[in-house]
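Quick one: structure tokens for this chain, please?
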Amino acid sequence: MRLAHDAGEKVRLAPPAAGALRRHAIAVRSLPMLACAMEVTVYILRCSDGSYYTGLTKQEIEARVWEHNARTYDGYTAKRLPVELVFTETYDRIVDAIARERQIKGWCAARRRH
């Protein structure tokens, strides 16, 4: 967050709430890692039961879909195989990909189909 003010003007900030400094320090340390440039793919899979799974990955999308179908991880798709890739979007910043994934996960299944 950036504060805008006139040159020479003193800016007073209210003291932080109890525990806020600790949370802020953790958030500041993690920001450079989250903001660094990398290719991240947001994807939607159609599962065998007709439901949809939304995720994101930094690896090649084909490899990630293969991991889902190979049951590499025990999760939502493991009991709904096989899965089919139906949508991808690629982002340069992970924070943008996370925001998009959250947006899509907030949609109902009918909207994800379109």
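DSSP finds four helices and three strands in the chain.
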